[in-house]
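User: Structure tokens for this complex, please. No commentary.
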Amino acid sequence: MITLEHISKRYGGITALDGISLEVPKGCLYGLLGPNGAGKTTALRILCTLLAPDQGRVVIAGVDALADPRGARQQLGYVAQEVAIDKILSGRELLELQASLYHLSAARARERIAMLTALLGMDEWLDRRCGSYSGGMRRRLDLASGLLHNPAVLVLDEPTVGLDIESRAALWDVLQQLREQGTTILLSSHYLEEVDALADRLAILDRGSVIAEGTPAELKRELGGDRITLRVREFASHDEAQKVQQLVQGLKGVSQVLINRAQGHAINFVIEAEGSEALLQLRQQLDAAEVPVFSLAQSRPSLDDVYLQATGRTLMDAELAAVSSRDPKAEKKQAMR
Amino acid sequence: MFASTAIAELSQETLALSKRLFLQLQRRPSTLVAGILQPLIWLVLFGALFAKAPMGLFPGGGSYGKFLGAGVIVFTAFSAALNAGLPVMFDREFGFLNRLLVAPLRSRYSIVLASVLYITSLSLVQSLAIMAAAWGLGYGWPGGTGLLVVLGTLLLLVAAVTALSLALAFALPGHIELIAVIFVANLPLLFASTALAPISYMPGWLGWLASLNPLTFAIEPIRAAYLGQFAFDAVVLEAPYGALTAAQCLLLLLVLSAGLFVSIRPLLSRKLS
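Assistant:
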């Protein structure tokens, strides 16, 4: 339903996308996971014909989006990250404007607006001016305007950022309903649990490249082995953690020993074996090696481990690193026409 | 069949986009009011400033107020049109434009067209309000065909200035820069025109500037209409480079606005593609 082929995009000297390819089947809820600055927004903007790629091909519902952008737009509903609304209009007026931009007849517009108002629970406030809306209301209104023309493909850029838990759950519900009705959905997120809970398939994007692709279960299964989080102290220092890292590296059947800064310098590693037997043996080895233990947790691989495996850092660490290197001015310039 | 669908869709999206601008104006009428208030103050204060000037000192033989009226009317329409780019700039900055651009618009020029429709109506309403005020102050009213001449001339000027302002709204980085340009352009263009004084009162260099200023090409035919002396072949401007008839002034305005719309097209299509 959505095909991106070898898409590249550079801004000045910075490569935002380095030849990514994606294939989203019909009726699939597809997650695009990655830290801030990985290129998710750029990919979605290219998909939605807001941005031309330097090279590559975009096909939406059989329409070549670069050759026939208008045809592609007809198939697309786009819910942008920064909600752009007109504060002085009411939600209903905004939806009516949107309906006219998609050339819906007045009767059809009324019908769709009524349907979406019920679906998204907007009737209490839809006639109030948008300026008075909370974040959750705005996001629902934006979702409604993305769905107004009943598009085959719905694209959402970080739809739950800044939402309260209730609004987020409501949004997830709606997305799942839409998928059941056959809408193809592509959403970007830097929340692991969101993609894990919602997505049928996902791609992990890091520094402009797709580093993993598949269903959440596939990706985790491919990793194999159990994940261990060892904390020698509640908040260990980096030096201390490094010493323990070296000790753990010397143990049998242990690999990928990393220091997780986001978790108070916990040590993350993988043991080849699975189950409680393995943990018991590990415990003995740790005692023998005189490694102190504050906590020791074992889990099956998570999506974060998929990310960790591919990039050598956790998603949280990548997020933290991205926060300080963000350039809001450059980002605004990229988003502006 | 295909063409009629295209026209129907084009007018649907243009009307919807204009409706938004008019709703904004209705709920936030300060632009409308300020756009009338400022020229009104000019009219009252400047009219009073030279109230005791001897009759006949100014061309046309009437009071200074009668001379000034045409200038302030043109200034009103000019200022309104100069602001045409602001809503577009805000839409660029706040990302609303992106919302419009992901929609399958029949033509993205409907965004430009909606702005032109909106700003033309706004500036004509403001100009009519100032004309009514000038009438109230005893500065006259252009009767019959005179009114058509005034409105037609204003339309030509508004088209040219709107094109310029829209181009700036797409070319400049933000609204601060746009407002700065508007601020800098506004008054000097008024002073370097025949709005406040005739060319015969100006030093040579200023006379040249005023005779090249498009505002002058709009002011003089309107002034002639106010004086009841309008004829297409009547000389309305004694410029240093030669005399211009009303028809020539209007033709210059027409060429200017057409030329501006043609020359901003590449910029618009680049920014809207």
